[in-house]
Amino acid sequence: MAGDLGRRVSVAAVGIPLGVLLLYLGGWYLTAAVVLLAVVGTREAYGLAEARGWRPFQLPGLAAAIFLVLTAGAMGSYQPWAPVALAVLLVLVPGLLAGAVFRRGPDGDPLLAVATTLLGLGYATLPMAFAVFLRELPEQLAGVPVTGWAAIHLLLFPLVVTWLGDTFAYFTGKHLGRRKLIPSVSPKKTVAGSVGGIAGSALGAVVLALLFLGPDAVHTLPLPTAGILGAVLGAVAQVGDLAESVLKREAGVKDSGNLLPGHGGVLDRFDAIYFTLPLTYLAFLFVLV
Fold this sequence. Notes:
mainly alpha; 11 helices
């Protein structure tokens, strides 16, 4: 237990500063990091399917993951990227079905092969593109160059809110948790932990709005709106956490991977982020002043 904690702290001590640096640099530095995370996360999703004996089409899926994030980085905005992403999926689906016809046949579980290939992309790749879009959103909304730390506040918002919600959920559940939330999916999660996580996310959102998105900032997020958005993100993050838990439980594995010592795989670390990044981007289009 002590060794595991030490590994977790060591990874966090390196990963957090590196992550903040990449957020600050933005551009192709951030895009390259997101490509790596998308590819590894998608591969881990395929690994969960393989643990059940299913065989996703890995090479087309991973190639699509790279292309989707690279085009997100090149375009920098959701609006021009969305038709490209749709076109990729429209080409990929019949391509995968053709592969099922000529390479797998009816005995190769074609339905599961195609479905799990697309699930990996939709789960671990498409949401990560919104990290790129949130990094570019301040400048797009302001219509003028936004540099320095002000450029990363909108991207930091869902990351910090999600992390705070997870932290509050852990400590609240540990000290106050009695009634289990959904024991068949995640035996350790409690109702008290869930409530504490939502409260922690709401509080964190208000603090972030007060510090970085106040009246004098490039963009303003009213405090009541911040609290509501934080609570929604906290609840959605828990759904993301539970979704990965149910996938791992079906696959019969403890962790999605071993890339991060003490933390598991990319899916284990970003399961909630996959749900909160797109939602935050969508919300900011309507609630920022």
